[in-house]
Every structure is written in structure tokens, then in C-alpha cells.
Design a protein that fits this description.
- 2 copies of one chain form a homodimer.
- By secondary structure, chain A is of the alpha/beta class.
- Chain A has a 6-stranded mixed β-sheet with strand order 5-2-1-9-21-20, with no helix packed on it. A 4-stranded parallel β-sheet of chain A has the order 13-12-11-17.
- In chain A, a hairpin with a 4-residue loop joins strand 6 and strand 7.
- In chain A, helix 1 packs parallel to helix 10 and helix 5 packs antiparallel against helix 6.
- Chain A is elongated, with a radius of gyration of 22 Å.
- The interface between A and B is large, with 61 and 60 residues.
């Protein structure tokens, strides 16, 4: 490290998700030293996590070492660490193993699964927020098919071959479609019980239609495409109870070994340590220029933030919004640095480039403003965009090839059940607890 | 299942390693029904396991679902199950979840890591026999480099950046070489501490030279190639003690966070349940035609077997020997079936096609009879042969591409530290115990 650097302002970035990365990239050659803190050693491409959970991709294909991304940036230090506490007044930050002082702080800690107060459900219905979640869902699903082979009780066998996805947003739709393809096109030809008994996949949505943020026509198209894959879609079906082996909703109760929760997200619980007033989902209500109220040197971006943007529209909790926020903060901070003081408010405006959800092989829906696509063209667009945004040439190449392989062979390569002591833990310790922050890691 | 089949003799095969698979393949269209039992759902290509431990390959690339291999074989049923006990007298077998009766039994359970009576070392120095072992070694190594970044005590920092491999056979040599390449070519450019302090990799061998089954000239060549990668090779250095954080050998003691045991293998402890006399390493001393003494309908093959073959030579515990044994038993059994009684002894003869060990990029040794290769040509031969024997087109393609990627970029794609409850277990529970059989799985 050269001596000149010690005089440069120190920027601490918490979280190497889409927002944190976008900020760090945009700050290249800025006159600051950056410390990027994440509790994981990798950036995770969350939009494809459901494909790890359904054995289509390997976890290493959608995770990329953070240090590798920035290995040529001598202005940037990567710390794998867990935030324990903030001291905004003194511009200090406590990690589990070290303390950091900062001149600027960027909070990009993202969100965690929310069970809307029913945290006991977490033990039976994991969310899908990190690699461990995905591998556990994969493990549970594949083990259920193995168990069905030797189970003599027909009802229990039926329940081993039933998977329920709760939540009809993009993640739930993608998971349900991918489960269905895995079950019906791959596993049914290899498991005797699954070939005799039809595996069931249910998608439960509390509201009147799936994909509520899309147009009504695309919701209907998505539902039709899901049904074509054999998914039973239930709308107006709010879940009332989940325990080990069953899900209750409306006036029905379904016995199912595999249940996945894709119904809610809340801000990282670390936000609660900020001594700032939060909204109902625990998010930070930032100023229009993404500063944390009362602390012009502290910014927050991504899923941890609640904001109506310059156009008065609520900014959604999606990757493109987090990236745009990251870049916006970089611009604002560069100006602060030039002026030597906080720039007058420069409001963030979210540019909605559209949204999409994939349902399966050649099945998807996409919406760009008033322009709508569904089926094969939507699917092809989805593939292209996701490959483009994946970090690293290695991952782009391998994901592309795995998709090509699956397309040609109708097979899935990552069907690995790994022996692990985790399985021997009681069910309530098997999954990440909902109130565990994504930063809480290290050892 | 059709009715004709119920009259066909029932063959139970225990273990879907190289031996078990070769047997099942060779029995295609034989007039029997086969049940193939393994505690894992995948066949593991063990020769490349060290590359998973050193982040070169993803676990899914060297593991292949057993059911997928045999999905077109209606005569073969796959059971993921754990053997609990044998009843050779009544031709019965107890799995944890079901009981099997057999007419023929093929025991292909393989081996486990042996600590030569020092089982307490297992907690600190894992062996490398399955995917979990490999992932844990990877986790420990990568975490050690992260820890070094924030450690303030120079001695502890030094120990985080030190890895020791115990055992100078092919596995130990391959691991040490791969560790060295990972540390010096990849991690050193990303970790500040590792770039300042030279990471140390030691290879300890109790005997006078590494690769003792190779010619003396190749041993020397391998040692020279390892030193070229920065590995400190210590021969005549039997390990006397291992605890959490240090290894003692001869009259030295080295502080090291990452220690891997590649010094010994013994037969699966399930062999002890056979009520047959075993050799010192717990292996079954089979008849020359691979039958278990006193039980002409029971065969044993692979690493669980002790045999001097038809040429009077000890059959080594390597994949080609297991595969040849598997095919030999299939031939003998087919003749038994034709004759309706045990065929007169047809002794197994091992055809040694040579052996090889890779050391790193363009570095390897290979020996085929008196013919010797080292360096680049040996390495190329090694690559080619390993790709050829990998099961499944998916894995061949992806392993090949990962190697190509690493060759061109000097990078490694699978550097993932995954959050896991396992890390929170006390050290003595972190690794597979040495006396745990590879069949003990299911949960």
C-alpha cells in the first residue's frame, strides 16, 4: 500500500450483491479507498438460484469469488466478515473480527425471507435466498424421491412425491415450473414409484392471480404455461399453517414432503441496528438521493431500501433497481468528493427496463412497458439477458452449456445428494432462520 | 415388473463404485434381476476428488446419478440404502429401510481412510474419500486464507497460510501439487497476506521416497516437479502426532491450519460383519476366482479385497483393478448360471496397464511397465485417460472445459465457501469418522 492512499477518504460498502458490486465498479479510479464487506466470499447471482435448487445448475456456476472480481483494483480491499453493530455518530462499524472507521458508508445488505410473523414455518418451508437454502431444497426434494421408493404406506409415498411452492411471484413461478420439469421429465423415468404415481407440484398464491406485477394477460399466459407442465395453480389460497409434512390453505390441507416458501421478503435485520426509523418490512426509508436520513455520509441501496423515486413510483426489490441505485450513489459521492461537501439533493429515478419470469423449456413471460412476450420468444430473451448479467466468463460459459445440455438431453446434471451432518440436525435447525441476516457469517 | 422376472435369480450388488458399476454393465442381458445398493445416489469418480478439494472442479462434475446410468436397464433396480447386517447363511441382507434376499451377492464396498489406530487425528486431518470430505477440505483451506487477512498475530497468520499433506502416494502428491498451484497462482494474487507471506505447502512421506510404487527415477522426477511448484517434500518423516492446528513428525512440529490425511486406506468396516476371517487391513481374503471363502454365491471385488492374483502378484487397490474384478465376476457368474452350479475355479488375473500421478499444470509422471513418461507428455496422457473414464457425457464435457479454462486463465472456478451448520460443530464432529462405512448414509 502506498502512503498517498492513507489520506484518501475511506468508503465502506456492506454487501457484495448487485447493488454493492455496481457501486464498487462505478467508483473505479475515484479518489477513495474502498473496503467491501460481505459475509460470503462470493457474489451470488440470485435470479438463477432456483435452478440450483432444482438440480439444473451447480452452485459454483452462479457464485463468483468477490476477490477475483476486484483482483486488479488496488484501491479496493475485500473483507469476508460479519457486521455486528453500527456507530453512525462516530462513523464506526463493528465486524466480528475487526473494527472499521469510514468517511462514507454504503449499506447494500439486501433482504431475507419473511414469514409474516410465522417464523415457525421456516423449519418446514425454507426460503430461497442463498446457496445453502438452494442445496437444502435440492437435497430434500431428491431424498423425498428416494424415500418414496422404499415407503410401503401409500399415503406417505404420495406425500414424498408432492412438492408445494408458496407464493406466485416470479421466484415461485420459476421454482414451480422447474420442479415440474425435473419431476416429470427427469425423475419419473428413473424412479419406479414416481413413474407409477404422478408427482404433484402445487403453486399457492394468496391473491387472485399469479405474477401480480405483470399484466393480467401475462398472468393468464403464465398460469396456462404452468398447467401445461402439470403444475396445479391455486389462487386465492392464502396459507394458514405449515408443519413437518403438510401445508394448510383456504379449507384444504395437503401432505407434502417438499415445501418451499417464496412468498415474502423483508429487509436484512441489521437495518434495525441503525437507530433510524424503518418501514413495516424493516426497510430504510431513504432520502430521494438514497442518503440515510440524518446521515449525509451514509447511503443505502437495494432491497434494504424503501423509496418512491423521482417519478413518484415505488422502486421494486429487483436486481436492476439495486444496480441503478449503486451507480447513482457512486455519482452522488463523486460529486460530494469534488465539492468537499454533500451535493444538493439529486433524486434517484428508476428506469424500469421490464420484467420477466421463466416457466420452463421454451416457456416464459416478459413485459417491457406495454410490450408483452410469452412462450418461446420470451424464453429466448430471458436466457440471453441472464447470461449477459452473470458475473464472470467462467460462469457465463458453464451456465450456457448446462442449459444447452439440458435442452438437448432433457437431463439435469447436478442431482447430487451429499452426505452431511446437517441432515442429522432436528428439523428446526435445518434451515436458515428467517431473522438471520445474510451478513452473519464467518465461521 | 413382469412375471417372468420373478423366477430369475436375484443378484444384489453392494456399492456403485468402479467395481460395482463394471459388474452391472457386464451383466447386461444376463438372465438375472439385479439390485444395486449404494448409500449415495451417485457414482463418484474418486481419482478427481482432489480437484474438488482444491476448487478446480465442482462436485457435480465428478459425481453422476446412479439411477441415470442405468435408466434403460429394466433388469436393474437401484436402491439408495445403508447396509446394516449380513446373513450369509440364509442369503439375506439387512438395509436400514428394507430387507433383501439374494441368490448371488457381490460385495464392492470399497475402503475408508485409515489412521493406523490414531483415530483422534481424523478430527484435525480429514481423509479424502467422498464429496463431503472434499468440500470440507476446500472450505477449511479457503477459510484459512480469509482468516489470515484479519489475523494480527504473525505466528497464527503463518499457520493459516500453511497446508500439510500427509502421505506421498499418488493422492498425496496430486493434492500437494494442486494446493501449491491454487495457493501460489490463484490465491496469492487475491489475498494481501498471502501475497506478502509465502504460503507453505508441505508433503510428508514416512518412507524414503514419494510414489514408492513407481520407479526410483519417476519418484525423483515427481519430487523435482513438486519442488518446482514450491512444495516442501519431506521423506523419512513419519507423523507422530496431529492436533488442532499442528502436525508433528520426526523431530519437527509445524503449525498448520489445513492438514489432509492421504496416508492410509483400509477396507470398509462392514467387512467385519461378514463372519469371515479378514486380513490386517480388514480386507476379505477372497478365493482366486473372487468368491468369499465358504460361500460360492458371494463374491467380493475392489478395495475391500485382499488377493494375490493368478500371476502371484498382489492386486493393488486402484480403479482399474476394481473394474477388472467386476467384469471377471460377471463372467464367472454367467457361467455359474449356465451350468446351474458354481463353475470350477477360474482365477482372476490383473492386467496392469500402468499407473500415473499428476502434479500440476503440464506436470505428471506415468509408468507403463518399463516405459516411463514425465512432464508434459505424462500430463497429457493423464488428462486423456481420466476424461475417457469419467462417467457420462455431461461430466466429460464440463471437466474438460474446466481444465481448459484453468489452463488458459490460471484461475479456478469453484472457490465457494458455503455457509453451513457443519462449521458450528465442534472439530471432532466436523469430519467423517474413519470407521464410518461409505455405505452408512440415508439419514
Amino acid at each position: 500500500m502506498n502512503k498517498k492512499k492513507e489520506k484518501r477518504p475511506h468508503v465502506v460498502v456492506l454487501g457484495a450483491g448487485f447493488g454493492g458490486l455496481a457501486f464498487c465498479r462505478q467508483m473505479k479510479n475515484a479518489p477513495v479507498d474502498i473496503t467491501l464487506v460481505d459475509r460470503q466470499n462470493h457474489h451470488l447471482f440470485q435470479p438463477l438460484l432456483y435452478q440450483v435448487a432444482t438440480a439444473g445448475l451447480s452452485s459454483t456456476e452462479i457464485a463468483y469469488p468477490i476477490r477475483n472480481i476486484f483482483k486488479h483494483r488496488s484501491d479496493l480491499r475485500v473483507v469476508m466478515g460479519t457486521v455486528v453493530d453500527f456507530d453512525l455518530t462516530n462513523r464506526r462499524l463493528k465486524l466480528r473480527r475487526e473494527e472499521l472507521r469510514y468517511d462514507y458508508l454504503v449499506i447494500a445488505l439486501g433482504g431475507v425471507t419473511s414469514y409474516f410473523g410465522n417464523d415457525a414455518w421456516a423449519a418446514h418451508a425454507p426460503g430461497l435466498k442463498n446457496v445453502t437454502d438452494a442445496l437444502r431444497i435440492r437435497h430434500r426434494l431428491l431424498m423425498a424421491y428416494e424415500r418414496a421408493e422404499t415407503e410401503t404406506d401409500p399415503e406417505r409415498r404420495r406425500s414424498y412425491l408432492t412438492a408445494v411452492v408458496v407464493g406466485g411471484g416470479p421466484t415461485g413461478v420459476e421454482l414451480a415450473g422447474s420442479f415440474a420439469e425435473l419431476a416429470r421429465r427427469v425423475l419419473r423415468s428413473e424412479y419406479r414409484q414416481a413413474s407409477k404415481i404422478d408427482p404433484r407440484i402445487l403453486l399457492l398464491e394468496a391473491g387472485p392471480r399469479i405474477l401480480p406485477t405483470f399484466s393480467e394477460r401475462l398472468s393468464q399466459s403464465a398460469e396456462k404455461q404452468l398447467r401445461g407442465l402439470g403444475v396445479e395453480v391455486r389462487t386465492n389460497a392464502p396459507v394458514t399453517h405449515i408443519d413437518d409434512g403438510s401445508v394448510s390453505f383456504s379449507d384444504a390441507k395437503i401432505a407434502a414432503e417438499t415445501v418451499v416458501w417464496a412468498a415474502g421478503v423483508q429487509a436484512s435485520p441489521l437495518a434495525q441496528k441503525l437507530v433510524v426509523e424503518l418501514d413495516r418490512a424493516g426497510r430504510i426509508p431513504v432520502e430521494p438521493d438514497l442518503r440515510v436520513p440524518g446521515h449525509p455520509e451514509v447511503f443505502a441501496i437495494g432491497d434494504i431500501v424503501q423509496l418512491n423515486d423521482a417519478n413518484g413510483k415505488r422502486v421494486p426489490g429487483v436486481a436492476p433497481a439495486a444496480m441503478q441505485m449503486g451507480r447513482h450513489v457512486a455519482k452522488v459521492m463523486r460529486e460530494d468528493l469534488r465539492n468537499g461537501k454533500p451535493t444538493p439533493e439529486k433524486a434517484f429515478a428508476y428506469l424500469d427496463k421490464g420484467s420477466m419470469a421463466t416457466i420452463g423449456r421454451s416457456r416464459a413471460v416478459a413485459q417491457v412497458g406495454k410490450f408483452e412476450l410469452s412462450g418461446f420468444p420470451a424464453w429466448l430473451t430471458w436466457l440471453f439477458i441472464h447470461l449477459m448479467f452473470l458475473v464472470g466468463f467462467h460462469n457465463k460459459l458453464f451456465v450456457f452449456l448446462d442449459w444447452l445440455y439440458a435442452y438437448v438431453t432433457f437431463n439435469r446434471g447436478a442431482r447430487l445428494i451429499i452426505r452431511s451432518d446437517v441432515d442429522n440436525l432436528p428439523p428446526d435447525r435445518r434451515y436458515t432462520k428467517p431473522n438471520q441476516s445474510p451478513l452473519i457469517r464467518h465461521d
